[in-house]
């Protein structure tokens, strides 16, 4: 097969774009090197699960009981993921106080010469904390907390209101009950942190949380296995809500690096997924659950089809990104929710991933 830069090849089941790009090195921060021995949580038992569940509920359309205004803040935005250890003495009833404290913290850091400029805005910021009610799946889940940082456009009129320039939220959806119940009463677990906005503001928010609540943050990548889970979970929704297409981006270990974009029509993806489901669930009464064997069979079918057409084995490469009409996810730790009906299913998996990254 000839390979051309930015070339596109099509098959009855998919369209594939192949292009080369230079190598990028990635470095993973070690949380274990950053957690302090003095942390109050260091004395608690480490009950976090060390591997992803091998079976999970099939996604279903959930009408989240969140206000339309709050829901708008969460969907259609690409979020950078982090994990955060339990918060010491965080109180959901003190959000107004936290808003003032974080605003003052940002102002103080600016006075000390820290650059926190956001392009196109004035250099003054106001913080608001709020609760996102209705974003829980079990009685052990803490209520989701949303944070916004506001500022005025650079040439705004005096009476022009401030606009959001940074957003973030902390959540826990169907967290490991054994781990959550093992925490001392002064700790609140909101392990998944999503942020969108200037990196300088993200760093300041994290620093304030670390100083105020004795917690630590770390980068949360979405593993190869988790990306495959998302592909299967989203494809399973095709019968209720069209996914339009299933798109994957792979990187193959050749010199120079080869990037492959593999797109499968929604109906073709559903047909393959349905055949896998029939084979593994018929007669077992487990139609409402999906197991890892089904996910692996689905992936194997997609890889086999690609190999038949292009004689290129995707198993030798890395899956970097997956997307459908329901959302997109990247190995680097980026997530976008495009349909609120299936957010809970995705957040359950991401919560599990966040808890998994915490130290034992």
- Helix/strand order, N-terminal first: EEEHEEHEEEHEEHEHEEHEHEEEH
Structural class: alpha+beta
Radius of gyration: 22 Å
Total number of helices: 8
Could you give the count of β-strands? 17
Helix content: 25-40%
- Report the sheet with the most strands, covering strand number, pairing sense and barrel closure: 13 strands, antiparallel
Low-confidence stretches: 1-38, 43-49, 280-286
Q: Give the overall silhouette.
A: globular
Integer average pLDDT: 83
Gap from first CA to last CA: 48 Å
Structure notes:
The protein is of the alpha+beta class and 360 residues long. It is built from eight helices and 17 strands. It has helices at 68-74, 95-111, 177-182, 199-213, 224-235, 266-281, 292-310, 343-357; strands at 7-10, 14-21, 55-57, 78-84, 87-88, 126-132, 144-151, 163-171, 187-188, 192-197, 217-219, 245-252, 257-265, 289-291, 318-324, 327-330, 334-337. Strands 1, 2, 4, 6, 7, 8, 10, 11, 12, 13, 15, 16 and 17 form a 13-stranded antiparallel beta sheet that branches. The longest helix has 19 residues, at 292-310. It is globular. The N and C termini lie far apart (48 Å). 33% of the residues are buried. Residues 1-38, 43-49 and 280-286 have low confidence and may be disordered. This is Centromere protein L. Belongs to the CENP-L/IML3 family. It comes from Pagothenia borchgrevinki (Bald rockcod). InterPro entries: CENP-L. It is found in: Chromosome, Centromere; Nucleus.
